[in-house]
Write a structure and sequence with these properties.
about 130 residues; about 45% strand; homotetramer; mainly beta; 5-stranded antiparallel sheet
């Protein structure tokens, strides 16, 4: 796991709103996409199979603080760090940079769970 | 099945774009939501279970012609008609009205399919 | 302003993801839609005009804690309260109930701003 | 203008639905993103400014035929061609390929318009 991971993301037109900026909810999709890119970089996926079924990462917490705004075709540099790695959960911290200035910061906490059809997700220790 | 079904839909802020109108792709979500409201009105759902598994309606075709635009908080009256009812497929026709003027028309064709895990959807006769 | 405001919201199919639940980012759109419904109930809008231009409410903070999940066609009761009313900003608190059980709670802080073309939004006292 | 333009696009998790495939409406966002990538490749943008104001491209027609489906993390090769270039409008044709097999084809027609605040878009000859 690198200390930090960088993910480039261009703001798409359908993500802008009538205030001519990316909608605040889009940043949560950006966080997830950066997380998934990190997992691909590490050779895994947010949805993985092992011999006993499917492992996935339901979210328990998500937050974002906005200090700026981004517009159509702006390219952000999203910096991802692991803020906390627990036994069954991980918290990612994100910094959204536009032209080297932070426009937002966010956090996402996900729990490692075994998914079984017809039952609620059950948290399990993160595979190592 | 009524001759036509009416579905009221307000344009939400996150559906607008930097041109200050509902994004053209939102109309396809509106069509689907009007279809689902019609199916609920008929006492069924787009995802139904029978004794042998799950039945759903993958889309094979979707189109929309735009003659106007709608903005945040506009309330549309979406008129749904069954344009064609085949043995295994149905085509819905939609008219999007704002203050009694058509701003768009669309079509959506879906095929009745049995879904089985690990296999492609298989078209089946529409249950009656 | 009522002590609390209730907003009913059905989970639409396009808001679900491959885990068969509403995507976590959808809850931020639900919060905003509940806020806008409250503002309409109060006879105003999130985008208002006064004699000197446009007033709007950029977000400075958004967060959500998830304790459950919702599926296609689930109807949530979203309870909105004003958690804090400052001079220039307001914080809303949301509780998402499904069959009277909380599945998520969230907060959204927005700043009252005057929007001027070509300039950054400027915070102003909330009109009374 | 090249005869055809290729745009790679990975299916993101938030674009999938409870049928575990990319939602049919996402293909219209993919088309637009491929169009915008083509315009950037040509050194322009879908929202351009000239000396007399803003020029943009409202959509008058959009359609998609689906012959397959794509899942989370699938990478599509989207082939864009100009199907028709008129005086004021352009029609793009799209082919969505997954592992060299077509899963969908689409069309998008846009009209070159001058945008003026408070007036409907006015179609103009495409700048050359």
């Amino acid at each position: 796991m690198p200390d930090e991971f960088h993910y480039q993301r261009r703001v798409e037109f359908c993500e802008t709103d009538a205030a001519c900026i990316a909608h605040f909810s889009a940043f949560f999709q950006y966080m997830e996409q950066a997380e998934h890119a990190l997992l691909r970089h590490l050779g895994t996926s947010v949805v993985a199979e092992d011999e006993t079924g499917t492992i996935s990462w339901p979210r328990v917490s998500a937050s974002c603080e906005y200090t700026g705004a981004v517009q159509f075709e702006d390219v952000m540099d999203i910096v991802v760090k692991v803020a906390r790695l627990g036994t069954t959960s991980v918290t990612y911290a994100f910094d959204f940079l536009l032209r080297n200035e932070s426009v937002a910061t966010g956090k996402l906490t996900a729990v490692c769970c075994r998914l079984q059809h017809g039952a609620p997700p059950q948290s399990i220790p993160i595979p190592t």
